[in-house]
Amino acid sequence: MSKKNKQKFETRVMTANMLVGGNVVYLVASGNWDEDIAGARLIENDDELRRLNNVAQEALVKGIIVGPYTIPIAIGSPGPNPLSKREQIRANGPTVPAGFSK
Amino acid sequence: MYRYDEFDHTIVRERVDQFRDQVARRLSGELTEEEFRPLRLMNGLYLQLHAYMLRVAIPYGTLSSKQMRMLAHIARRYDRGYGHFTTRQNIQYNWPNLEDVPDLLADMASVEMHAIQTSGNCIRNVTADPYAGVATDELEDSRIYAEIIRQWSTLHPEFSFLPRKFKIAVSGAPIDRAAVRFHDIGLQMRQNTRGELGFGVLVGGGQGRTPVIAQTIKDFLPKQDLLSYLEAILRVYNMLGRRDNIYKARIKFLVNEIGRDKFAALVEEEWERIRGGALDLHRDEINRIRAYFRPALYELITEQESAYDTARRSDREFDRWCASNILPHKQPGYGIVNISLKPVGKAPGDATADQMDVIAELAELYSFDELRVTHKQNVVLGHVRLADLHSVWQQLDAAMLATANIGLASDIIACPGLDYCNLANARSIPVAQKINERFSDPEQLARIGQIRINISGCINACGHHHVGDIGILGVDRRGEEYYQITLGGDPADNAAIGESIGPSFSYDEIVDAVETVISTFEGVRETGKTFANTWRRVGATPFKENLYGPTRK
Amino acid sequence: MALLVSNRLIDESWHHLDDKADSTGTDKNIVSVEQWLRDRDTLIARSDKLGIILMSDQPPGLIEADIKRFDVICLDFPKFTDGRAYSYARLLRDKYGFTGELRAVGNVLRDQLAFMKRCGIDTFEVSDGVDARDWSTAFSEISVRYQEANDNANVARQNNSTSDEEIAGNWSY
Ligand code: SF4
Predict the structure, then answer these.
(1) What percentage of chain A reaches a pLDDT higher than 90?
(2) What topology does CATH give the domain B6-109?
(3) Residue in B with minimal Cα distance to A60
(4) What is the dotted CATH code of the domain comprising C2-6+13-169?
(5) To 5 degrees, how large is the angle CA C137–CA B54–CA B160?
(6) Each residue of B188-210: pLDDT tens digit?
(7) Is B369 in Cβ contact with C172 (below 8 Å)?
(8) Minimal Cα–Cα distance from B398 to chain A, Å?
(9) Among B412, B423, B427, B475, which is best to mutate for testing ligand 1, by the most ligand atoms less than 8 A from CB?
């Protein structure tokens, strides 16, 4: 985010956790919050960033979500792929099978 | 075990109602997230990577079967069928829903459990020797004092908003199994020249981003003065500890900044003022608590346990398990059973609801209805008759709980890391699993012997990497997971902080690097010597050469 | 500004002397430590009743010699996480024997009231715009206490009559 303005805009998506469930969600085109990053609305310029920030602030105040922020992604198939390991794990869940039993 | 009376029940119940009200005020919008966050943290509720995480206190790690069954019920009803036992003798649930947490806590409260003070800048769950009351070497059961401290520190009006979190550990034995040198306050029981029991008081230890070994500020504190002295320490810290920089707010920085002697003098001055007052611990009060921890009604066993010996001779696997997982008990004919939560392929410290039920059942049938959770993320059946061991082992084995690796290379301490934790740089669990797989051959494990491999996913050191023989620390290099290796840490009497050995390794390299460290150790060790001993003798050079090649120093 | 006193909301009757501009005040003045140390004698001569406010980095030791002169001592709680004034309150009550009004001011939050009260604070400032109508219920949410502090409520074990036999009966072995 601290990259110089000259560089081209890094495509991002807006993410947060739901207030009640705590689950990871992404802001999708309809303006809803969805668990699947595939449908996340792409942010490709500063206007869009500002607009979605406002949407997120509103959802925050309404008590729908907590802790919204944007993450850089790469476009892949089927959809956006977070660049950082942390966000990949947030998007896909723990990489280890939990609650292992026979 | 300590049994809550009406009084304790009232506090726990009222606390649930209070939190229910706070959650309702949050959901109605009366409280903002900013206002609610510290309140939920005071009830052990975090927001992690994927979901809320609830940390439940297991005071000094001790549990009854009934409580363990409740943990299983919670896992099934409110979570995804498992729980994670932590290095601080707590349990964490990774998937509860905010709305459900008040009900969850109410269920917990029915068996006297709660999440009070499992988070926030307060006095956290007091930890103790996991073998308290059954170890052969102890002076007195440390849980008596841990319980007294638990009561005193619960919802303490003055010390609930300290500069930073505060951890206290108690050891009742000359051999330290509670890591008293790595806590904000460590209490080490000892005897004075008149034969009275009291505590050596250490302050300012800790791990985290600035690991420090605690320093003694009082050689001998009479037992009756325990609470007044603790209150004096906490008051000095509460007033003088740094609040401008979260990374310098722990008591270790205060002790370091003003010097141990000055700190001790300030505590002494305050203590002189308040000692002998309302906080004086009368013998009656100590006896009252002690009565809860009186020894079990052991059977007097005079003859050799021949069935046990026969089973060990005839069953190779059982014998191996006994060799690594059973410790001598102070009562002849009994053993301390360590149940490993580190089988191949599982997250260290995780237990499924079904496994918890099995453990509860075994405790009820064979171990006086009592369990302990250790800071190594395993579970202990404190007192099992040797004659029952073979049967206990078979039942554990059927539930995947009979891994024979206590204290060995695959008994790895690992924090949740980047798979769950919001603060993580790198994953811990899969690294632990890969090391575990690599060292799963029993012969090899036995040959390597006792060794501590500890993994933390970030500098906060929840995985105790600073005190591992081999410590592994997850670091972030441009969004990629890397791991730094430290060697030579020791949590106990020869307390030492591990030394960083060189540049970090990638996720794909780290397991090979650990194997290199271990094979180097096997190459240079003298027969029968431990890693710690060998490290002190040979130092870093052979390890560095094998890890990075001979040219690097 | 309102005050919560004995579970009732009342209007503030003290005058907070402004550090610079306001040199007159009334006969009931609350001053800062800096003012006090600077104008001590004038303030004593002029005020009928005196109060002082300790900021969270101003321990009561700073005014040790004068503590008994004050009718009210205000303790500032700048934010949720700054807990120094809890210790100041206890020192004022226990060490310095202050028996006057001990008042919490600043960012006084409902969910901390019970802790404050237990440390010996008896009145609570309500910031403008805060709805404090249900504040008085905060004190009774937890009805029992494990440890001695500066209230006389229901401390654990003090009058506990559990005998050894009863405990043994409880004991599960
Ligand atoms: S060490 Fe870091 S990654 Fe691991 S649990 Fe603690 S905070 Fe999370």
Answers:
(1) 78
(2) Sulfite Reductase Hemoprotein; domain 2 (3.90.480)
(3) B33
(4) 3.20.20.70
(5) 50
(6) 999 999 999 999 999 999 999 99
(7) yes
(8) 9
(9) B423
Tell me which CATH homologous superfamily contains domain B413-552.
Sulfite Reductase Hemoprotein, domain 1 (3.30.413.10)
Q: How many CB atoms lie within 10 A of CB B357?
A: 20
Report the mean per-residue pLDDT for chain B.
94
pLDDT of residue B287: 92
Q: Whose CA is nearest to atom 2 of ligand 1?
A: B458
Summarize the confidence of residues B226-242 as an average pLDDT: 98
- Mean pLDDT over residues C74-89, rounded? 96
For residue B455, the cross-strand partners are B414, B472
Over residues B153-170, the mean pLDDT reads 96
| Residue B212, strand partner residues | B206
Q: Do C83 and B160 touch (CB under 8 A)?
A: yes
Q: Name the closest residue on chain B to residue A82, using Cα atoms.
A: B479
CA-based nearest distance C12→chain B, Å: 26
Chain B partners (3+ C-beta pairs within 8 A): A, C
CATH architecture of B134-292: 2-Layer Sandwich (3.30)
C7-43 residue pLDDT tens: 889 988 888 887 654 556 677 889 999 999 998 998 8
* Residue B418 to residue A86, Cβ atoms within 8 A: yes
* Half-sphere exposure at residue B241, Cβ-oriented, CA atoms within 13 angstroms: 30
- Location of each CATH 3.30.413.10 domain in chain B: 134-292, 413-552
Model ipTM? 0.92
Indicate whether C152 pLDDT > 70.
no
The answer, yes or no, to whether any atom of ligand 1 lies below 6 A from the CB of B53, is no
Closest CA to B399 of B446, B342, B358: B358
pLDDT exceeds cutoff 90 at B419: yes
Class of domain B307-398 as given by CATH: alpha beta
Q: How many CA atoms are closer than 13 Å to the CA of B306, on its beta-carbon side? A: 1
Q: Which of B329, B435, B312 is nearest to B381 (CA)?
A: B329
- Alpha-carbon gap: A31 to the closest alpha carbon of chain B (Å): 21
Cis geometry, peptide bond prior to residue A78 (ω within 30 degrees of 0): yes
pLDDT given at position C151:
77
Q: Are B153 and B162 in contact (CB under 8 A)?
A: no
Q: Which chains touch A (3 or more CB pairs under 8 A)?
A: B
Positive or negative, the CA dihedral B455, B456, B462, B465 is positive
Q: Where in chain B is the domain with CATH 3.90.480.20?
A: 6-109, 307-398
Instruction: Calculate how far, in angstroms, residue B434's C-alpha sits from the geometric centre of ligand 1.
Output: 19
pLDDT in tens, B165-189: 999 999 999 999 999 999 999 999 9
Q: Please report, for chain C, the start and end positions of each structural domain, with discontinuous segments joined by +.
A: 2-6+13-169
* B431 within ligand 1 shell (Cβ under 6 A): no
Choose from C54, C55, C82, C87 for mutation: most chain B CBs within 10 A: C87
